[in-house]
Amino acid sequence: MNVEPRSPLPADEVWERLDMRRALAARDLGTVFRLLQKHGTSQRTIAALTGMSSSEVYEVLRGRRVMAYEVLCRVADGFGVPRGYLGLAYDTDTASWLDQNLVPAQTRTDHEDDTRGHALLAYAAEVTVGTAGELSSEWASVPAAATPLPGQIGPEDVEQAEAVTAQLRHLDYRFGGGACRDAVAAHARWVDKLCELPSRPATQTQLLVAAADVHNLAGWTAFDVGLYNVAGRHLALALDFARQAKVPSLTANVLYRAGRVYLHRKRVGEALRFFQLGQLAAQDSGSRRTVAMLCANIAWTYAEMGDEAQAITHLNRAQDEFDRAGDADQEPWVQFFAELDVLALDGMTKLAMARHNDAYAAPARQALESSVTRRTDGMARSLAFEQGALATACLLTKDTQAALEYGGQALEQAHRLRSRRVTDRLAPLGRLAVGVADRGPNADAVRDLGLRIEQVLAS
């Protein structure tokens, strides 16, 4: 007997779409059901979850209005939607959303605005003359309220979205993901809403690119503070938007960041696969800078796997691709990858190989010293990564004084930056420092550095 496969239930995100929320608020079940079908929910599944017959669902889809309280409750409960979305119950979040998205500002009473205005003016006067006490509970918190959306998206809206993303990227690079992750996530939600609004085809494509870029950044900042599952969700959305926009260089960049998440977590097999897929997308894009970035990360991954030959091959290709790239790649998501990053990844790759072959410790130190001495304050997180790695290379080359200098600097940066990754990347230095066998004058100081790193890691 043939059994119809069960249609998937709609994802939670479907219920938060602007068109769905408006249809629910208007109790327009015909539109609600059509949106569900658009997202893969069959008519039979809708009937089963709402307690309606298939013919009733069909009639609703054809325009029949449903006003019965009991049926509306079954619809809400069957799909796990808050009853407030259909106006069947009251909750403050739904009320705020309705106020911002459905109730025109001019319908609010003048009396309400006047009352609040007088109260604010009275409090301002008290503050000015020095008689103000504690702020009243009415004013002590700001209720959730959505920013009004434009009626139609134009190029200027996309330009503003891109500019905000660029500033947030700069903050992440300088201060770490913890300094701006919430702001990036909020900006990503805003851009998502813009994507649902009408726009010309060219503008829509630009908007998809902007959405991919900001979710890429959101995934990166979540990764930086250790929220790996959240990072994965943002990166998946970034891949989807980049696919729709048909921008392979951006797809490659998202895959690079996904690979770094897995490399950081020592899941090197999965990291290698992400990087290899990214390399394919980068080659399709024609962006030599992106190809260089992927090759350098593939080299590091092979080094972590102990495959010296493949690591050296990909390091050489990364340098060759970067040398031939020039200034042709202007996309904001790849501009960060510069000559210093090629040097740093050369150093990280050789440092990983030094675990199996001591001969690579000195070349690793040389490459990392070159990158560290040229970093600026605006590159604080990358500087911290490289200082910690350089301190490790110095210990391997028996230069304890330099190890203490660079290790202390990396530890200081870890205290300043809002980045869990910076702290995690100090772990190899901490283990090596605690177990140092050197009996020289710096041995106790090196072990103390290792103990301080362990304390940071445990906090």
Protein architecture, described:
By secondary structure, the protein is mainly alpha-helical. It is 69% helix and 0% strand. The protein is built from 23 helices and no strands. The chain has helices spanning 12-15, 18-25, 29-38, 43-50, 54-61, 69-79, 92-101, 110-129, 155-175, 181-195, 201-224, 228-245, 248-264, 268-285, 288-304, 308-325, 339-353, 361-372, 380-396, 400-416, 420-424, 427-434, 443-458. α18 packs antiparallel against α19. The radius of gyration is 28 Å and the shape is globular. The relative contact order is 0.05. It comes from Kineosporia mesophila. Residues 34-86 form the HTH cro/C1-type domain. This is Helix-turn-helix transcriptional regulator.
The rounded Rg comes to 28 Å
| Helicity range | 55-70%
Query: Count of DSSP helices?
Result: 23
Kindly report how far apart the N and C termini lie: 59 Å
Shape: globular
Secondary-structure class: mainly alpha
Give the tally of β-strands.
Answer: 0
Mean pLDDT: 86
- Report the uncertain regions: 1-7
Pfam family, one: HTH_31
Domain HTH cro/C1-type: 34-86
Organism: Kineosporia mesophila
InterPro entries: Cro/C1-type_HTH, Lambda_DNA-bd_dom_sf, TPR-like_helical_dom_sf, TPR_rpt
